[in-house]
Amino acid sequence: MRLLHTSDWHLGRSFHRVSLLQAQRDFLGHLVETVRDHRVDAVLIAGDVYDRAVPPLSAVELFDEALHRLAELGVPAVLISGNHDSARRLGVGAGLMARAGIHLRTDPAGCGTPVLLPDEHGHVAVYGLPYLEPALVRQQLRAPRGGHRAVLEAAMDRVRADLAARPAGTRSVVLAHAFVTGGAPSDSERDITVGGVASVPAEVFDGVDYVALGHLHGCQTLSERVRYSGSPLAYSFSEARHRKSMWLIDLGPGGDLTADRVDCPVPRPLARLRGRLETLLTDPALDVHRDSFVEATLTDPARPAEPMARLAARFPHVVHLVFEPERAPEAGGQSYARRLRGRTDHQIAADFVAHVRGQGPDDAERAVLGEALDAVRTVEAAEEVAR
């Protein structure tokens, strides 16, 4: 049986306020083409279909369109809810949609009830474990203690119990949305730490033929049978080096497995540039990034004038600006109070401007600071008299 493993679509998300709706539409078109061209038997979507619990209408319409296209191909899909999704909203109409081959698994109570996919070698039992928030599902799953590991172990106990009651040779697949130990995170995943612990060991999933993971945005292999597909698009500059893809999984009659990556379309590459502004504006080696989304980290000792506008003239898609000025180290070993001792309010204010901007105030700015400080003193004096 040939399975296509994807996750973390985050429909409705933008990239530094730039809409990604068309890029997400292009990806879903690519997914449908992959299903058709590679003769995929079922699609596995391991959570975070949407970027937030109440997605915008445009994202809902995009999701609806993708499901209709898969249903028209006659290819079943199994979806679970992720930590960004509203499980209740995503799961509306699950019973009716299952008749069209779209199987939504958003209720933790259904962890041990698989979708059975038949082929010439028997059945593949696909179990959907939606994101399990420990505080909300512990009692429902009868987990002996709190935490991600305990609730996932309780869910997998149900999976193994059901699988043990099925005919010998039944192959098994688990979809789960979790942070599994050994996975590499990025800046764009929402923190799911509980009690100081976010990750669970891969051994929790022992006993099944394939584990299709969602949550982490980098495509990665934790073991031959435990993999993250990653997000199809980059959602932060920390993903600049990611190769965005899906897993094409062939599951043989005895549970033997082969996996191949199918690359996703890249709407616009990411570039993280660092240096002084004039260097970024003039270095010919940076011409290759003209059409990239750009994050620029400026190292000028003093903050340049209008840096974003000047960068945008060369890099039209610059979306993020960071200042990390290269400065001589400040005098260490002195307390803040000692550094201020003997200095006037005017000098302290001027030092603060120099610290933030990289250079002190000019004459006009000093005059404004002086007027502000004088006004404060006048108000304080009036209040003192009033007392």
SSE layout:
Elements (H helix, E strand, L loop, with lengths): L1 E5 L7 E2 L2 E2 L1 H17 L4 E5 L10 H17 L3 E4 L6 H4 L3 H5 L3 E4 L9 E5 L2 E8 L4 H8 L6 H17 L6 E7 L1 E2 L18 E2 L9 E5 L5 E4 L2 E3 L16 E7 L5 E7 L6 E6 L1 H6 L10 E6 L8 H8 L3 E6 L12 H5 L4 H13 L5 H24 L1
Parallel strand pairs: 1-4, 4-5, 5-6, 8-9, 9-12, 10-11, 12-14, 17-18, 18-19
Antiparallel strand pairs: 1-15, 2-3, 7-8, 13-14, 15-16
Helix pairs in contact: 1-2, 5-6, 10-11
Could you characterize the architecture of this molecule?
- Keywords: DNA recombination, DNA replication, Endonuclease, Exonuclease, Hydrolase, Nuclease.
- It holds the Pfam family Metallophos.
- Heterodimer of SbcC and SbcD.
- This is Nuclease SbcCD subunit D.
- InterPro entries: Calcineurin-like_PHP, DNA_Repair-Maintenance_Comp, Metallo-depent_PP-like, Mre11_N, SbcD, SbcD_C.
- The protein has 387 residues and is α/β, with parallel strands linked by helices.
- It folds into two domains: 2-263, 4-Layer Sandwich (Purple Acid Phosphatase, chain A, domain 2); 270-386, no CATH class.
- The protein is built from eleven helices and 19 strands.
- The strands form five sheets. The chain has a six-stranded mixed β-sheet with strand order 6-5-4-1-15-16.
- β4 (42-46), α2 (57-73) and β5 form a beta-alpha-beta unit.
- The longest helix is centred in the C-terminal third of the chain and has 24 residues, at 363-386.
